[in-house]
Amino acid sequence: IPDKFAAVGLTYDDVLLAPGFSEIAPADIDTTTRLTREISLRVPLVSAAMDTVTESRMAIAMAREGGIGVLHRNLSTADQAYQVDLVKRTQTGIISNPVTIGPDATLEELDRICGEYRVSGLPVVDADDRLLGIITNRDLRFTPVAEWATTKVDEMMTPMPLITGRVGISREDATALLRKHKRERLPLVDDSGHLRGLITVKDFVKGEQFPHASYDGDGRLMVGAAIGYFGDAWERATTLVEAGVDVLVADTAHGHVSLLLDMVRRLKADPATRHVQVIGGNVGTRAGAQAFVDAGADAVKVGVGPGSICTTRVVTGVGVPQVTAVHEASLACGPAGVPVIADGGMKYSGEIAKALVAGADTVMLGSLLAGCEESPGELVFVNGKQFKSYRGMGSLGAMSSRNKKSYSKDRYFQAEVVSDDKIVPEGIEGQVAYRGPLSAVAHQLIGGLTQSMFYVGARSVPELKEKGRFLRITSASLQESHPHDVQMTVEAPNYAGR
Ligand code: RVP
């Protein structure tokens, strides 16, 4: 009997980090960390695979800040792969596979393609990919809209010869060419005039604007995408890999199940997918983490029930307080060199450092990012304040037939439930305060983490993990931690009260 009650689970509010001697300046602190066995990130932030948090806009913004976004899977396979494509084509410095248009296309098609890919101009190529010219939004402006459907691209484009670069040109040479000729775009061609890439001034400027961005080996932004184990999950996975996804996240609310572990094993064995990093989850125990390590996962995601919108612990009575869960998982993952992701339950920036000290390498955020401009969904006004909707992927709204895109019911093992009144939700639907652009939110989160590291006396994430020591605290201490005995009159950008 004592065994049955042996363990005490702790979460973020149960602990504080002890301050330590610091010989460093906050400016020397490096937050670089490992997302998976093979991917490093400059900041330990991952945006949650939820339909109110991560689509391509959020994923692009996250990668620019040095983290990564995981595209949710309440989307058809084609839509999710399309979102991967949107991220991979964004801000790349050198675009190796630019969107193009043919000479016989109409201006109407040009307008549609520019809108779809959010670009302002396209190289014009023949059927053989030979560069014929370039056409931009500006060329549209001088043709009345009524004539767009009948005007062809080759009537309006700037034809060859253009200022071009040789494929393989250095960043410096490309910049010099663009400057010298005051051009915004530099198509890259090979000896026989085939288009092999494109460089745009805008992308170069952005490259300078986002020095910590998460790039793949080809200089494209990195992106993750969620998959499951049920139905056409394998087809979804291979389609995402073809679209260029960097990380597949194979997860369910309870990941320690044989079907999902089989999926991870297959992904890491199959020649079509094994070059892509695979994250498995979610687990809350050492044994669960060990099972994913044994299945070959490149990282393990931890969190059973801590999410702000999650009711799993109340509906099922099952879960592990998050600091304990992360620590337990790290006991299995650490020796195997497999990074841990602490998923869910974060309310303040201070909890990022707590998660890292407990054994995580990165954190996955839902509610803290759902209020960003880049999250899907409209702004709503309530009593003059701005909000954005935020809901659990296990909520009725996300899983019921009211949502035509309820593709991820298997995350809650309800894939085969057909009638809405038979769904047993494990999440709720709500809203969070609008927080503005991700860059401002991420600045506060990373700023908070950098201060944590300074207070602990750690220059790097590995040092933080090694030096960090927890104090267990009481509810009186927690009360002391928050502002108290004062009526807050102004909301801080990183603290909105409890
Ligand atoms: P939070 O950051 O506390 O808002 O939690 C986000 C996490 O909650 C997600 O990354 C996911 O693991 C979990 N989640 C998402 N939907 C639900 C649910 O409906 N129960 N839970």
UniProtKB/TrEMBL annotation:
Is Metal-binding found in the keyword set? yes
Identify which residues the record assigns to the active site.
Answer: 310 (thioimidate intermediate), 411 (proton acceptor)
Q: What class of enzyme is it?
A: oxidoreductase
Q: Which residues bind IMP?
A: 308, 343-345, 366-367, 390-394, 426
Query: Which co-factors does it depend on?
Result: K(+)
**PROSITE patterns per the record?**
CBS, IMP_DH_GMP_RED
Q: Which domain of life is it from?
A: Bacteria
Please list the reactions this protein catalyses: IMP + NAD(+) + H2O = XMP + NADH + H(+)
Description of how activity is regulated: Mycophenolic acid (MPA) is a non-competitive inhibitor that prevents formation of the closed enzyme conformation by binding to the same site as the amobile flap. In contrast, mizoribine monophosphate (MZP) is a competitive inhibitor that induces the closed conformation. MPA is a potent inhibitor of mammalian IMPDHs but a poor inhibitor of the bacterial enzymes. MZP is a more potent inhibitor of bacterial IMPDH.
In short, the EC number is 1.1.1.205
This protein's pathway reads: Purine metabolism; XMP biosynthesis via de novo pathway; XMP from IMP: step 1/1
- Residues reported to bind NAD(+): 251, 303-305
- Function of the molecule: Catalyzes the conversion of inosine 5'-phosphate (IMP) to xanthosine 5'-phosphate (XMP), the first committed and rate-limiting step in the de novo synthesis of guanine nucleotides, and therefore plays an important role in the regulation of cell growth.
The record's note on quaternary structure and interaction partners says: Homotetramer.
Q: What is this protein called?
A: Inosine-5'-monophosphate dehydrogenase
Source species of the chain: Nocardioides lentus
Q: Source taxonomy lineage?
A: Bacteria, Bacillati, Actinomycetota, Actinomycetes, Propionibacteriales
